[in-house]
Specification:
The structure holds 2 protein chains of 2 kinds. Chain A has helices spanning about 15, 55-100, and strands at about 5, 20, 35-40. Chain A is mainly alpha-helical. Chain A has a 3-stranded antiparallel β-sheet with strand order 2-1-3, with no helix packed on it. Chain B has a domain at about 30-50 and about 130-330. The longest helix of chain B has about 35 residues, at about 190-225. The termini of chain B are far apart. The chains are: A mainly alpha, B mainly alpha.
Chain lengths: ~100, ~350
């Protein structure tokens, strides 16, 4: 899987404190020389399962965010659909009223 | 409940003097109680070692002389052999005490009369030493380094559980408080039988609290393992956090109850029972925490996820306790004391 990141898990290292991320191809920390581990892209926690990009909690948080976006999107879509139906049903009458008002 | 602030580097140093007893309602009470118990046992072990040294030195005059000669040049030692002791028993040698309290030995002569008095000094080198207690103490002394390691590991865990203690309530936690209250009451009871009965009830309540909370904790962990939170759209984080809070709460009270139980046994001189409690705790850590430490570290926002993080530190407790328990519960405990035999 692409987009995974590595990090230094040596708590005394500057790279760990600054949460510096490394590419997958990097094996050792450029600051302290310790072996790098796969870390969560968001919170920098070390990952046991090297196929994951995010830790359990951050993955849940991202999914929650997506759910909320979908929900908001759904509501907006629903509102637009309702408005569209109204326009189609009463379109002619609305146009007549608008033209009368302009005169 | 009074909040206790502990510094990052606070370890249970068993060589330090006994800590002044805290308020029983203090969050640090169980660990301080256990720590003081261990210090008392180690002090007793130190005394036992000295007693044994004295006994061996007394019964092996050559060794004693060799040791003394290095310090003071020389000294004379009167060695009472088994036949001398028998002669005292049979009346051939009489021990008399004068009004001043000074003791003399008188040997019965051929005519049946006792001869001149020889001043002697009595030294009771085995006075007040119970061989079983001494063996246990020695075992404790031999394992001092391991006891210290266990104490250090417990301190790390203890440090991480303190802030969860505030304002927690449920029926299982109620059992812990009940056990603790019974223990405090038992400490102030004069009647020995009643004290024992109440102490037993206290231990039972603490044990029940531990096992009920263990089940709660296991079920919460299983929820996270099975990813049941995934079904709740938009509420996953909330559900993960609430289960982690519950797990932390259960762990905190399991730890407190275990420390109190171990402390009670240690202060009562029941070292084998104390080691069994610690072994159970170690099994619990091994079966419940270690297996899922990585997952718990990922779910817990207070954990750094590294080896020094909360859950991985907790998971490491298992190693030394099992080794310690094996040694303290070893069936063969042999106490070797030299006994001087008459040269024939």
């Amino acid at each position: 899987m692409m987009d995974r990141v590595k990090g230094c898990v040596n708590e005394k290292c500057v790279a760990h404190k600054k949460k510096t991320t490394y590419k997958e191809s990097d094996d050792y920390c450029s600051k302290c020389g310790d072996k790098l581990s796969y870390v969560c892209k968001e919170c920098y926690k070390p990952l046991e399962d090297t196929s994951e990009k995010y830790c359990v909690r951050c993955l849940g948080k991202r999914q929650d965010r997506n759910d909320k976006v979908m929900k908001v999107g759904g509501s907006i879509g629903g509102a637009l659909l309702t408005a569209g139906t109204v326009v189609l049903t009463y379109g002619k009458d609305i146009a007549k009223i608008v033209s009368k008002l302009k005169k | 409940m009074k909040d206790v602030v502990l510094s990052e580097d606070l370890y249970m140093d068993l060589t330090s003097p006994i800590t002044e007893e805290l308020s029983p309602y203090d969050a640090a009470y169980p660990i301080i109680f256990l720590s003081n118990g261990l210090k008392i046992r180690l002090e007793q072990a130190e005394t036992a070692v000295k007693e044994i040294y004295k006994a061996v030195a007394k019964e092996a005059p050559i060794l004693a002389q060799a040791q003394q000669s290095a310090k003071k040049g020389y000294r004379y030692v009167v060695d009472a052999t088994e036949s001398t002791l028998e002669a005292i028993e049979s009346g051939k040698i009489k021990l008399t005490t004068e009004k001043s309290g000074e003791m003399f030995a008188q040997i019965r002569e051929a005519n049946g009369y006792y001869g001149s008095k020889l001043p002697i000094k009595r030294e009771d080198f085995r006075k007040g030493v119970d061989p079983v207690q001494m063996t246990n103490s020695l075992q404790m002394k031999a394992l001092q380094d391991q006891v210290q390691t266990i104490a250090d590991q417990i301190s790390i865990i203890d440090h991480s559980v303190k802030d969860v203690l505030q304002g927690q309530q449920n029926d299982r936690i109620g059992l812990y408080y009940s056990g603790r209250a019974l223990f405090f009451e038992a400490r102030n009871i004069i009647d020995k039988e009643m004290k024992k009965a109440l102490m037993a009830q206290s231990l039972r309540a603490l044990s029940e609290a531990t096992f009920q909370l263990t089940l709660t904790m296991q079920s919460d962990i299983q929820y996270l393992v099975n990813e049941k939170y995934k079904d709740a759209r938009g509420k996953r984080t909330e559900l993960i956090d609430s289960h982690v809070r519950s797990i932390n709460q259960s762990f905190t009270f399991i730890h407190q109850a275990t420390m109190l139980r171990a402390g009670i046994y240690c202060n009562e001189g029941e070292l084998a029972a104390m080691s069994t409690v610690l072994e159970e705790y170690s099994h619990f850590i091994d079966g419940t925490v270690t297996k899922h430490a990585a997952l718990l570290a990922q779910c817990d926002t207070s954990d750094s996820g590294t080896e020094k993080g909360v859950w991985k530190s907790r998971a490491r407790l298992k190693l030394d306790v099992s080794d310690f328990t094996k040694k303290i519960n070893a069936p063969e405990k042999t106490l070797y004391l030299g006994v001087s035999k008459e040269n024939e």
